[in-house]
Design brief:
Layout (H helix, E strand, L loop, with lengths): L8 H14 L18 E8 L6 H4 L2 H14 L7 E8 L4 H14 L4 E3 L4 H5 L2 H6 L4 E2 L17 E2 L5 H15 L5 E6 L2 H14 L4 E5 L7 H9 L4 E5 L2 H13 L5 E4 L6 H8 L10 E4 L10 H13 L7 H20 L5 H10 L22 E8 L2 E10 L8 E3 L16
């Protein structure tokens, strides 16, 4: 039942602040300067779990993005502007996310929000960011929420959406595990629901489906039910901590199915760190990725990211999360360059929609005025003797009914100095 309350003076003032931020927020329609932009600086912000249930897997992403910006800043920045990246901890809690994002927009007056992390967390601020006309670029999640150009014109995805991932995984299972009983464990939000939807687009109904919530770390009931039901293939739409717990519980139960994991929870280094002496439980784990792997030392993108990581990231390990963070930074710099010297929020959105940017990704990046989804495919990885490596071709598809097909367009190499060029 709704309760009508008298609006306090403080609440009214907050509403006025929101309206003021929305009016002329792209630097037009008023005399105010573009938020977060001066002749020498552009300030962007993010929310991310530096603490909480997702921190063990994801707390290193935003610092890696900032490391790439520091690398660019050391060589003059973008159109003479240094990039300042404000990182706020939300603990993977939507209530915290709302608080810190409002602080970034209304108090810190950031130019854009870049790579806010998490499906439940970032979904909670979608309406706020778009109503205030804040560029909302590349949330770290694969939900389809980000690809709604009419409803959310300022929001753009980066990573493949979970339906695409599910379809690619489903095609592999159909080919390589034919006739085996397939079961699914997914997070109780759009991550799990979209992943399952994609899987079932290809496989039909999955035999056994279970969910988890991040506030309850016990997944023994779910894994135990898979064993009791005779599951032979288990697909995990899980964040890293729950991937590790699932593998550990399976060991305790002497349950040995073939495990396949979505990209979100499948980085080997992250899992090995959490599993410790049980890191060998990842042996044979099949996953997906769309960016170069840290083990590919001859890859020019890995050579660039290794240099940046060593010089500007405080000795942090170069794992899949760091590569993800730096890849986000590289694309954002490309788009700042394309937005021009006379930088506005509107010019940045137009630059993103222009599309056609080349970077470290293996699959096509699909930004346009009518398509705000991110990368459109992935390639399979497998852990063998403690090394995660690619196998087979890259695959592409969409979140609708397109088939899963091979994608063989080669990537461009990074510029010699590791910084995109205007043009």
């Amino acid at each position: 039942m709704l309760t009508v309350r008298r609006v306090s003076a403080a609440a009214a003032a907050a509403l006025i602040l929101v309206g003021t931020a929305a009016c002329g927020a792209d630097g037009s329609g008023g005399s105010a300067a573009v938020p977060g932009v001066t002749d020498t600086e552009v300030v962007v912000g993010t929310h991310t779990p530096l603490t909480g249930p997702a921190a063990a897997g994801y707390s290193t992403i935003a610092p890696a993005t900032r490391a790439y910006f520091d690398y660019v800043n050391a060589q003059g920045g973008v159109h003479g502007r240094k990039i300042t990246y404000k990182i706020k901890d939300d603990g993977y809690n939507p209530a915290n996310t709302q608080q810190v994002v409002r602080q970034l927009v209304l108090q810190d007056r950031v130019f854009a929000i870049l790579n806010g992390l998490g499906t439940p967390t970032h979904t909670s601020v979608l309406d706020f960011l778009n109503s205030n006309r804040v560029p909302d670029l590349f949330p770290a999640s694969g939900t389809r929420n980000w690809d709604q150009p009419t409803k959310y014109p300022n929001t753009f995805a980066f990573q493949p959406d979970y339906v695409v991932e599910g379809k690619v995984l489903g095609a592999h299972i159909k080919s390589q595990y034919q006739g085996q009983k397939v079961c699914f464990l997914g997070q109780e939000d759009d991550f799990g629901r979209d992943g399952l939807a994609g899987l079932e687009k290809v496989l039909g109904a999955v035999a056994v489906k279970r969910t988890y919530v991040t506030s309850n770390t016990n997944v023994e009931p779910q894994i135990s039910s898979f064993k009791q039901e005779g599951c032979q293939v288990v697909v995990l739409a899980t964040i890293p901590g729950f991937t590790a717990r699932s593998l550990s519980v399976a060991k305790q139960l002497s349950f040995t199915p073939s495990f396949l994991v979505f990209n979100t929870g499948g980085d080997y280094q992250t899992l090995a760190k959490q599993l410790g002496a049980d890191a060998k439980l990842t042996e044979g784990l099949v996953g997906l990725n769309y960016l170069p792997l840290y083990t590919e030392t001859a890859d020019p993108w890995i050579q660039l990211f290794t240099k940046v990581n060593k010089e500007y990231n405080g000795g942090a390990p170069l794992d899949g999360n760091a590569i993800f963070g730096m890849s986000i930074g590289y694309l954002f710099v490309q788009e700042l360059l394309a937005a021009g010297r006379d930088l506005t929020r509107e010019s940045l959105i137009k630059a993103v929609e222009r599309g056609g940017y080349q970077g470290p990704g293996l699959a096509p990046l699909r930004h346009s005025p009518t398509d705000h989804s991110g990368y459109g495919g992935e390639r399979f990885t497998r852990v063998t003797n403690g090394v995660q490596a690619y196998f087979g071709p890259t695959y592409q598809t969409d979140e609708a009914d397109a088939p899963v097909t091979e994608y063989d367009t080669p990537r461009a190499a990074p510029p010699a100095n590791g910084i995109p060029q205007a043009g």
